[in-house]
Structures are given as structure tokens and as C-alpha cells.
């Protein structure tokens, strides 16, 4: 009798916990530059009665490799097309869901107490601005999207070879921003949205659109999230009309 009672209790516990698991919010892997906007969108989604999404932020490269290694992400939001291509080529996303709904700008920032406007043109001498020991903080161009955009812009200006040894290479865009906020680097190349949320830096110049490929953010449902109704619902929410005002409030541009 005791054994039957124990089995019944275990079965009841399974029935009680199964709905809770089914109602868990989706796990979202998102580029670090999306932190503030995604937190706001996650709160808005939860306010509608949905389970709150679990948000994980890092460099797109780190997130893509984690997904490749089996990390339990339901949605992936990259800061460039290349890292979404990386997971797509490995059949880790639902191809039909891939969309690039938002964009960003690439800017030069300086500490707020030392910010002077810089006109960013082909003949702008950034090396002279840095002085003998100054460095420019940005993401590591080897794997961080903002660093790749920075490399493209500096190459367009004809200054990559000169500036490359003077880069302070950060693991993600928020880390690069922090180096400028702390005064550890006199300048940084970051996204316009990251500069906008910082009280410690000011935008001193915006890189011309012609200097780099457009900064776009591809989103997709992963194979893991394909049959997760909450993941699909949240994906529709963040890529739909209800999210547009939030993206714009945090400085992102909207795809036409």
C-alpha cells in the first residue's frame, strides 16, 4: 500500500509541475547592445500575462557559439548578419523566421567632461586626436560586430593600419563603452543607442553610412524554440507593430 501511495504521490507531483514547465518564458540570447530595449520589451510582454522571458546578453559571437554547443536558447538576436549566418549555416535556426527589423548607427564617443565635436571624413586624422598614448575602445574586430563595423569605417578612412595597434579591444560593445566612461580610453567606437543611454560619454561624431555596411540586427527562432508557443509568441511581439515604439524610444531605426 505504501508503494502504491508513493507512486501516486510522484505521479501527482509530475502532473502539478508539468504545466509550470510548459509555462516557462522563452530563453532569449541577445546582443549586448539590445540590453535596455529587450528588458523593457520583456517587461511589457510579462505585463500582458505571459511568463517573463529569460534574457541573456553578450557579444553575438559568444552567443552564436554557445548555441552551436547546445545552449538552450529559444530565440537568437544578433548585432550583425554574419553571426546569424553562422548559426543558420549550421541549421540551428528556423530559416523562415529570420528577419532584420531594426538598425543602428556607428558613433565616436568621448568622456562627457572632455567631449569636443569631431568631423569624421576620409581625411580626419584620428591618430592625432589620440595623442602619443591614447587608445580607441571598441569591440574586438576578430569576433565582436561593433569592432567589425569599426574596422570597416577606419579602413574607409584609410587609417586602419595606423589605428589598429591603438585599439582597446573589448569583449562586447558595453565593455568598450565602460572603458570610455571610466576615462581609460579617450575615445570609443560604439553604437548610437549605447551612447544614448550613458551619462558618462557624449557622441562627438557619427561615421558616414558609406563607411561601413548597414548596422542591422537579425532575429530568429532557434530549432529548440520552434515548437515553443511562448517563444513564437514573444518573437512575434518583438518583431511586430507593438514593439516599434519601444525600439524607437531606445534609439534604434526601423526597417523599411
Automatic annotation (TrEMBL):
Residues making up the signal peptide according to the UniProt record: 1-22
SUPFAM superfamilies per UniProt: Periplasmic binding protein-like II
Keyword Translocase in annotation: no
InterPro entries given in the database record: ModA, ModA/WtpA
Keywords for this protein: Metal-binding, Signal
Gene3D superfamilies assigned: Periplasmic binding protein-like II (3.40.190.10)
Keyword Cell division appears in the UniProt entry: no
NCBIfam families: modA, PRK10677.1
Family named by the database record: Belongs to the bacterial solute-binding protein ModA family.
Protein name per UniProt: Molybdate ABC transporter substrate-binding protein
Gene this chain is encoded by: modA
Amino acid at each position: 500500500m505504501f508503494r502504491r501511495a508513493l507512486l501516486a504521490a510522484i505521479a501527482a507531483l509530475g502532473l502539478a509541475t508539468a504545466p509550470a514547465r510548459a509555462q516557462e518564458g522563452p530563453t532569449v540570447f541577445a546582443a549586448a547592445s539590445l540590453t535596455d530595449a529587450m528588458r523593457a520589451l520583456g517587461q511589457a510582454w510579462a505585463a500582458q500575462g505571459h511568463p517573463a522571458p529569460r534574457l541573456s546578453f553578450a557579444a553575438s559571437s559568444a552567443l552564436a557559439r554557445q548555441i552551436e554547443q547546445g545552449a538552450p536558447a529559444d530565440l537568437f538576436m544578433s548585432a550583425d548578419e554574419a553571426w546569424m549566418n553562422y548559426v543558420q549555416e549550421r541549421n540551428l535556426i528556423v530559416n523562415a523566421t529570420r528577419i532584420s527589423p531594426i538598425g543602428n548607427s556607428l558613433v565616436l564617443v568621448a568622456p562627457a567632461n572632455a567631449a569636443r565635436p569631431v568631423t569624421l571624413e576620409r581625411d580626419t586624422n584620428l591618430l592625432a586626436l589620440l595623442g602619443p598614448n591614447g587608445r580607441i575602445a571598441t569591440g574586438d574586430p576578430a569576433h565582436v560586430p561593433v569592432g567589425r563595423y569599426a574596422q570597416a569605417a577606419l579602413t574607409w578612412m584609410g587609417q586602419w593600419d595606423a589605428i589598429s595597434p591603438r585599439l582597446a579591444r573589448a569583449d562586447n560593445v558595453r565593455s568598450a563603452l565602460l572603458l570610455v566612461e571610466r576615462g581609460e580610453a579617450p575615445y570609443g567606437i560604439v553604437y548610437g543607442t549605447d551612447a544614448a543611454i550613458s551619462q558618462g560619454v557624449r557622441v562627438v561624431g557619427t561615421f558616414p553610412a558609406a563607411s561601413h555596411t548597414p548596422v542591422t540586427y537579425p532575429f530568429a527562432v532557434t530549432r529548440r524554440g520552434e515548437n515553443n508557443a511562448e517563444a513564437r509568441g514573444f518573437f512575434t511581439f518583438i518583431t511586430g507593430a507593438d514593439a516599434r515604439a519601444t525600439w524607437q524610444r531606445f534609439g534604434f531605426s526601423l526597417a523599411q
